[in-house]
């Protein structure tokens, strides 16, 4: 897989952090979408102040891509959609502050060498995101639903890992509550703006 090797080389050369590497992998040019487990890891990292800004900076960078890199843009929107629903509330806040950057993607154009309009994927996804960000009630509902689903999935997976590998089920919860506490004590959401 040359694209994976190329990405690993760039990660080394640019000395990307763990969070940045995960975002780069989730938003790669590979012809498949980001895995839900990878997006879930990234969502958990958004509760950490430093990782949050690294993640968001990398996403904005990906959203600025164009042409044959349309997958970077599309997957960045897909990841953003997931993070808005399951990550730190600061994700949605920063997206609202920079909504124009997402709105401009409704005009995204790219037709591949076979004449297929790949830009439509980006245009549709950006429209959906803008609608979600502008509808506070729907946003709250989607977040609450997504977080319930995520908790259920976590219980299922911790239950099975606990039996399989003897790992305590409280472990993931400790790290989440710690980072939530940490994030909350850091001041107003405006101070996180990347």
TrEMBL record:
Pfam families xrefs: ENTH (PF01417)
Biased composition (Basic and acidic residues): 142-153
Entry superkingdom: Eukaryota
Ranges for domain ENTH: 11-143
Region feature (Disordered): 142-194
InterPro entries associated with the record: ENTH, ENTH_VHS
Biased composition (Polar residues): 155-174
Record protein name field: Epsin-2
Compositional bias ranges of the Low complexity kind: 175-188
């Amino acid at each position: 897989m040359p694209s994976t090797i190329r990405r690993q080389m760039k990660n080394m050369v640019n000395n990307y952090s763990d969070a940045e590497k995960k975002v780069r992998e989730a938003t790669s040019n590979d012809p498949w979408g980001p895995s839900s487990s990878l997006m879930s890891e990234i969502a958990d990292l958004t509760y950490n102040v430093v990782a949050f800004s690294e993640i968001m900076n990398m996403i904005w960078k990906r959203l600025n891509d164009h042409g044959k890199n349309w997958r970077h843009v599309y997957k960045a929107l897909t990841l953003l959609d997931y993070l808005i629903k399951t990550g730190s509330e600061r994700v949605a806040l920063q997206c609202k502050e920079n909504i124009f950057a997402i709105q401009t993607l409704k005009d995204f154009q790219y037709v591949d060498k076979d004449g297929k309009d790949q830009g439509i994927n980006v245009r549709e996804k950006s429209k959906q995101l803008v609608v979600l960000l502008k509808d506070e009630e729907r946003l709250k509902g989607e977040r609450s639903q997504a977080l319930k689903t995520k908790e259920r999935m976590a219980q299922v997976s911790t239950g099975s890992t606990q039996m399989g590998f003897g790992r305590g089920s409280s472990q993931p919860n400790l790290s989440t509550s710690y980072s939530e506490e940490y994030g909350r004590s850091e001041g107003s959401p405006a101070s996180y703006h990347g």
